[in-house]
Design goal:
This protein is α/β, with parallel strands linked by helices. The chain is about 45% helix and about 15% strand. The protein is built from 11 helices and 8 strands. The protein has an 8-stranded mixed sheet, with helices on both faces.
């Protein structure tokens, strides 16, 4: 299995899909989520872009280091992975925590970010986002990793999707548990969420940007994505009707169409 060592020696699991001569797209997943959750997008994208997916520090097949973690540190991990793969600059797409990591990268090294997508993400932890992300920590601390993945499902997916697709829901939960984060890795990522704040630095982002969110997102509601959109000025904005936090899983056809159409304008 392919691993790359980042600057502190931690092993990060990754996969590369698509011809290496194609423009690189690095896909960054959210809290406690392994890279394979991007496969519905990879299957749609890989004829046009080289897709790099990976398990973040503490998740799935990547190595766990003791907390604390930070968004800045995980942005550094992603740059180190790009370096290991010989990728000088890339298009970035991040979901939730992955969107925060992508924003941090775009602010800190704009020359390395060709375009930027932030899905179901947020600009900085305050108010309701502090409350909702704090619930993630409460679920983990009170019930452990197994409980965490089950207890957070109603926060991640819309009621309609869960009721219409119960068998699929159970398969998604089985996949999450089979590719779970370690306790320390999950705690580290959640605490990185809680300390995150891009509000002072959003003005440094110059890459073309797309902001999307599910209409029914209860973890980071539409207003959180609107805050990103307003801070970036010239970004494009899309709401997936009826979808929850994991809009790319609930509405993959629409998600892939919207994002691929947008990417084509910036390749």
């Amino acid at each position: 299995m392919p691993h790359a060592k980042v600057s502190d020696g931690t092993n990060i699991y990754y996969e590369s899909h698509g011809d290496e001569s194609l423009p690189p797209l690095v896909l960054i997943r959210g809290t406690g989520a392994d890279g394979t959750r991007w496969m519905p997008q990879v299957n749609a994208y890989e004829a046009e872009v080289r897709c790099v997916i990976f398990d973040g520090r503490g998740v799935g097949r990547s190595e766990t280091t003791p907390p604390p973690y930070s968004v800045e540190g995980m942005a550094g991990d992603t740059f180190d992975l790009m370096d290991a793969l010989g990728i000088g600059s890339a298009h970035l797409s991040g979901s939730s925590l992955g969107g925060a990591i992508a924003m941090r990268m775009a602010a800190d090294a704009p020359e390395r970010v060709l375009s930027l997508q932030m899905h179901s993400s947020w600009l900085g932890t305050h108010g309701f986002s502090e409350f909702s992300l704090g619930l993630l920590k409460a679920h983990l601390v009170s019930g452990g990793v197994e409980h965490y993945y089950a207890a957070t499902m109603p926060m991640l997916l819309s009621p309609g999707f869960m009721s219409r697709n119960f068998e699929m829901l159970m398969k998604i939960l089985d996949h999450m548990r089979a590719n779970a984060a370690s306790y320390d890795g999950l705690l580290g990522q959640i605490e990185a969420n809680l300390s995150y704040d891009m509000r002072p630095d959003a003005g440094r982002i110059s890459a073309p940007a797309l902001v999307t969110v599910g209409e029914m997102d209860v973890v980071l509601p539409v207003q959180c994505s609107e805050e990103i959109h307003e801070a970036l000025g010239g970004s494009d904005f899309h709401v997936f009707e009826g979808a929850g936090h994991l809009s790319g899983m609930e509405s993959p056809d629409e998600f892939n169409r919207v994002t691929l159409d947008w990417m084509r304008r910036h390749l």
